[in-house]
Design a protein that fits this description.
This protein has 502 residues and is α+β, with helices and mostly antiparallel strands. The chain has 14 helices and eight strands. Strands 1, 2, 3, 4, 5, 6, 7 and 8 form an eight-stranded mixed beta sheet that branches. Helix 2 packs antiparallel against helix 7 and helix 4 runs antiparallel to helix 5.
Length: 502
Amino acid sequence: MSSPAAAADIAAIRRRYLWMATSVAVLSLTINVIFAATTDSWSSLWRPASSTILLLGGANWLIARQLFDPIRRFLVGEIAFDDVQRRLTQLPLLSARYVGLLAIAVVAFQTSTPWWIASDKPALQSPTITDFITICVVLSAFYFTYTYFVVSDYLASLCGFIFTHYGHNLGLFFGSYTLKLLVALLVISVAPLAAIMVHLFSYSGERLQANILVDVASAVFGVTISAYFIGRSLLRPLSVLSRAMTKVTGGDLDIRAPVTSNDEVGELTGQFNDMIEGLRERERIRETFGRYVDESVAATILRRQGEGTLAGEMGEATILFTDIAGFTTIAEYLAPHELVAALNQYLETVLEPIRAHGGVVNTFIGDGLFASFNMPLACEDHAVAAVRAAIDIQLAVGSRTFGDQGVALATRIGISTGHVIGGSVGAGQRMSYTLLGDTVNLAARLEALNKEHGTRILVSASTRAACGDRFVFESLGSVAVRGRGEQVAIFSVDPNGQGNPS
């Protein structure tokens, strides 16, 4: 849950940017000190140092304040995130661009000093035109690259800060990971070599030694510092994404990764978040689907057919219908919420034995339900399983009351075994798995016949034959069943009777 940032936190994140953006002045001063120490020119150190402090420090600090101001206004709630997003994603490039322009002026001033201030020290004598141009280009490019990656590293922290406190992620990406990597490699490897090569061909003797020593010492220090920030800015976003993926692999779909870079990695992180949102939505649909369709049916549909349907198939199954005796009368004296509460408790009681014996609830029909054994899921001895489920239902329902009013409910059950047709039926996007056929119709008729015979469980002759002597059955003769030309034999089941368990 995101929470707005405190004023002190906003001030701290702003100060960090100003420091990171102007830290190039420290790098430049260090190179000035290395040059002074190597050439023993401490007395003239103030000239390059003052230009560094004035431009790369002071002027850069003022520019950085202006660059960060829109971000500050967003953090304090003055403008919307969409109005500052472009500035966020371009912050490294804009910061580095101004540093590059300032660096050209600083380096040009420092390198041209020997042209208008004479010195007897070889290292401080006038440079060649080639050396002057090379140093201006190399150092300006180096300062530009350093600032870009330092601010890119800062951008990761800033984006994480915004994500944590405001819940926003970058959605604009102007950077290129490949280009970043290429520039980093060129500046770190080629720039120092270019300076050394120019000095090798421009000077000799004591001055060559001094310049090479300055080049090597400056390169070691500058490249080390730059490589640290380059590595962080390029690898940290990948680490953030990797940690998020690890959590998802562990089953955590509540994760949302902060987008901490302005390149393809940041875009990939945004797509990762979209993917996780899609997975969360599918999980919500699956959970909702499971509330209205038996989970095993849903799993079978998803496993067999990626489009969410099951093609028609025929097989042998045992069908079980249940209904509550006298439900209409009960509904007349119970308040709606009391009736629904009692019915939900009743259905939970009925569902447990069905699932325990391998059955699948296909449909809830008002106060009753329609369950199947052996379709769509295989169930060994499905007729026996259905009768055992019916007996357990009668025992469970008869031993308790339901709802706040303590309503006693009586259940009637009809069971039939035979061939059925199963598949997904419906139209458009509204599909339902169902079973069709004479066996289904007969089970429904048997459930209704309980009322005429004063029984609780009625089974067909096919179910009786499939169960053998594992239950106590009583023949009720043959009766006419609506929809059939011939009479059918029906049997009641004694819930308390013990047949042969084998």
